[in-house]
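Translate structure to sequence.
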């Protein structure tokens, strides 16, 4: 009996030793995996953005700018140590784009001399440097950091001058017809904006990078038209947003023949008509026939990145384009095949008559260059048969904001900045009516508990 006991004891000891060895090996394997995983995570900082609108990914614009860096770019972030992590989540995305991007974090309490040297006044401030140039980011967002990078690379101030005095959209108007959102939007791409008048002085100021004719409702005088013509033909850049000459109860838009004649001399004829488009996609988006919806674009640099984006243009006119003399003109986009253009602009109700009205598609926007023959470069101009797409009431519609910024970048010769901008956080809230809320409450408060109780009774019954 004693021998049997000794054998059992030896078997037990052997089994315990074997189990202990297994556990030790498992622990070592798991520890090794964790060590390797942490090493790789620190060495190769990669992340995957699973959000529907890529909220935590840098935009194509930023990727293009950082990817084309020719020099090292240094980003210095000033804060207290406890605030570094919030900035690190964003700045790490920049370092992952290029080995030329370097980030350092400075604790303002531990290094006050460096903080004063950079002129830092607020915690959570980032400074972008390339060589001897440096710019402070306006905000700790992608737009703030990328905007500072653009200012360092490009240098100088870019000013958009919006003409006023002939019933144009106003930069300080916050109503649906105003251009306050236009001002805010271009400022994110580091454009300054101001209002100018050609009535007081028929000349374009020298600090204007781009001049905008924003939907005038009265006729431009000869000196104003001459000033615009001279400006572009001497290498200037201009955006013309021209609405159809409607005559309605609350709308009275002058034909502006002299301005139209100037554009016709450059190869773009603004027709006196109104495009009506009963596009089923537009109807699904809640748009009427007076708001043509554009979903396909040409290959010109302004619109080539717009694939997959829809843009809308309330009350638009058609354009005819051709190359003329010193100008090269390219179409940007057109209305759909199912669109019509009516020349009946009021007064009275405007209706669609397929038997009389012209059948589309129609050119709605075009971009052109003017050969100056001077070393300073060519003039550039963009003409859109509508101004409402850039007004407060419609600028946030799908791709309208991107289209406007692309036009500005092309006109200011910043083609490398043309891209789709970061998307706003997507609102994915679920809206329910009272009946749906009642159904969910009944299901969660009564049906689910009853199912659990019934399942428990069934288990008890089977065991019994």
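Result:
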């Amino acid at each position: 009996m004693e021998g049997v006991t000794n054998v059992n004891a030896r078997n037990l000891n052997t089994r315990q030793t074997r189990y202990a060895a297994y556990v030790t090996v498992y622990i070592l394997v798991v520890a090794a995996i964790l060590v390797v995983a942490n090493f790789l995570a620190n060495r190769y900082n990669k992340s995957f953005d699973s959000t529907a609108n890529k909220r935590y990914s840098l935009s194509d614009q930023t990727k293009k700018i950082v990817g084309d860096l020719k020099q090292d770019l240094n980003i210095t972030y000033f804060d207290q140590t406890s605030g570094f992590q919030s900035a690190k989540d964003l700045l790490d995305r920049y370092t992952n784009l290029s080995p030329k991007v370097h980030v350092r974090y400075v604790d303002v309490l531990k290094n006050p001399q460096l903080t004063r040297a950079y002129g830092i006044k607020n915690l959570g401030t980032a400074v972008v440097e390339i060589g001897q140039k440096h710019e402070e980011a306006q905000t700790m967002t992608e737009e703030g950091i990328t905007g500072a990078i653009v200012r360092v690379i490009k240098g100088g101030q870019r000013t958009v001058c919006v003409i006023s005095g002939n019933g144009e959209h106003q930069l300080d108007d916050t109503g649906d017809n105003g251009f306050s959102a236009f001002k805010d939007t271009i400022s994110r791409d580091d454009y300054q904006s101001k209002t100018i008048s050609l009535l007081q002085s028929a000349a374009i100021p020298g600090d204007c990078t781009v001049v905008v004719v924003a939907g005038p409702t009265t006729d431009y005088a000869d000196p104003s038209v001459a000033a615009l013509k001279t400006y572009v033909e001497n290498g200037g850049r201009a955006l013309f947003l021209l609405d159809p000459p409607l005559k309605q109860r609350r709308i009275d838009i002058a034909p502006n023949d002299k301005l139209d004649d100037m554009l016709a001399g450059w190869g773009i004829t603004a027709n006196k008509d109104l495009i009506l488009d009963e596009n089923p996609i537009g109807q699904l988006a809640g748009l009427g026939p007076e708001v043509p919806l554009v979903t396909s674009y040409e290959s010109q640099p302004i619109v080539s990145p717009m694939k997959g984006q829809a843009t809308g243009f309330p009350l638009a006119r058609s354009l005819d384009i051709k190359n003329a003399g010193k100008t090269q003109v390219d179409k940007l986009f057109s209305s759909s095949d199912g669109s019509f253009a009516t020349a009946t602009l009021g007064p009275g109700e405007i209706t669609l008559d397929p038997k009389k009205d012209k059948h589309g598609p129609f050119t709605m926007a075009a971009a052109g260059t003017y050969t100056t023959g001077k070393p300073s470069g060519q003039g550039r101009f963009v003409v859109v048969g509508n101004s409402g797409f850039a007004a407060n009431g419609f600028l946030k519609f799908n791709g309208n904001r991107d289209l406007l910024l692309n036009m500005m970048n092309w006109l200011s010769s910043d083609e490398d900045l043309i891209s789709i901008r970061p998307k706003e956080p997507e609102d994915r809230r679920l809206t329910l009516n009272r009946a749906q809320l009642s159904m969910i409450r009944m299901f969660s408060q009564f049906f689910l508990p009853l199912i659990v109780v019934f399942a428990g009774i069934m288990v008890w019954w089977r065991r019994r």
